[in-house]
Write a structure and sequence with these properties.
This protein folds into 2 domains: about 190 residues, Alpha-Beta Complex (inorganic pyrophosphatase (n-terminal core)); about 120 residues, Diaminopimelate Epimerase, Chain A, domain 1, CATH 3.10.310.30. Helices cover about 40% and strands about 15% of the residues. The strands form 2 sheets. Strands 6-7-8-9-11-10 form a 6-stranded mixed beta sheet. It has a 5-stranded parallel beta sheet with strand order 2-1-3-4-5.
């Protein structure tokens, strides 16, 4: 469905000679796929436009999606239309030179916290930012052109951010838009091999998770992936963060948490839940996100235990006041 804000974004892109694309820190498949997908749509349709996606942060896990562009002089930013995708608040934008752009567009699927763009297209009910890019293509497919690589980028973000189409927010529209991308010739066998094949050390890490995880009285599963654990299994931050998915299939557990040590004093937290919204807890601990999929940051073991206790109380209250939670 064509919405007025989509028309505004299309008109700005069509009129711009230079476009800069931006995403969030600690990149994932959705922000990478959405920015690369938008760049692909623009370049396929208007090859003469200058479109740049620059970011110092790299991803080993997602390296198969290809490199970004080299950085450009500040003067280029100043003359460019900036498009920030999949970032709820401006401090999380990985390339802070976004502020140099002459005009800024925000495209995001998180709960609105900061409308930092001159144009803001936010749909927090969407399962991924890539779903929004696919919807943008669908709305203007009589004009926009797409190729297999661009469709693969967009489909990758749809798959990864929805947990292979399992999470809240997946609708019939999600699946129809995913099908639209598949129609472009996405090689799903190769894509899924890149995304889901694991090294032997990573599989041993999964066993370590089950040996060391804990479950609270009310059904909150949690694991602390320490620096020592990461070193023992040869993990980088991304692969360490996959611990969260290993906790998702435990009967009676409605919330699961992964605490990941970083190279700084920060302990990054992945929060996931079934049925019960947990974004309020994330916001209390320097984070936020979706109702059932959020991120946070704590700075000590004491804060970590406080978050676990808050989550346990929240889930206990949910179970006491709801039925049908399995």
């Amino acid at each position: 469905m064509l919405k007025p804000v989509m028309q505004q974004i299309f008109d700005r892109i069509k009129a711009a000679e230079t476009i800069m694309l931006f995403r969030h820190r600690r990149i994932d498949g959705d922000c990478l796929g959405a920015t690369k997908g938008m760049k692909g749509l623009i370049k396929c349709t208007w090859p003469e436009k200058k479109v740049y996606l620059t970011d110092e942060e790299k991803s080993g896990f997602l390296a198969f999606m290809g490199p970004d562009d080299d950085d450009v002089p500040d003067e280029v930013y100043k003359s460019a239309l900036g498009i920030v995708i999949d970032v709820g608040n401006s401090e999380r934008i990985s390339n802070q030179k976004y502020a140099l752009c002459r005009e800024l567009i925000k495209i995001d699927h998180h709960i609105e916290r900061e409308p930092y763009g001159q144009i803001n297209w936010v749909e927090d009910q969407r399962s991924s930012a890539c779903e929004m890019i696919a919807a943008f293509y669908e709305a203007f497919q009589d004009v926009l052109k797409i190729d297999q690589e661009t469709a693969t980028h967009i489909y990758t973000g749809m798959v990864t951010d929805s947990g292979r189409f399992q999470y809240e927010g997946v609708t019939g529209d999600t699946m129809r838009l995913a099908g639209l991308m598949l129609d472009q010739g996405v090689d799903t066998e190769t894509l899924y091999a890149h995304l889901y094949l694991r090294s032997f050390d990573q599989l041993k890490f999964k066993g370590c998770i089950y040996e060391n995880m804990q479950v609270t009285k009310n059904g909150v599963a949690w694991i602390h992936v320490t620096k020592e654990m990461q070193q023992a299994f040869g993990l980088d931050f991304e692969t360490a963060s996959t611990a969260i998915s290993s906790l998702s299939d435990i009967k009676g557990v409605l919330c699961w948490l992964a605490f990941i040590d970083t190279d700084t004093e920060e302990i990054r937290v992945r929060l996931r839940s079934r049925f019960a919204a947990i974004n309020g807890i994330a916001e209390k601990y320097n984070g936020g996100g979706h109702a059932c999929a959020s991120g946070a940051t704590v700075y000590s073991g004491q804060e970590m235990q406080a978050l676990i206790l808050d989550a346990d109380r929240h889930i206990g209250k949910y179970k006491d006041t709801h039925e049908g939670w399995l």
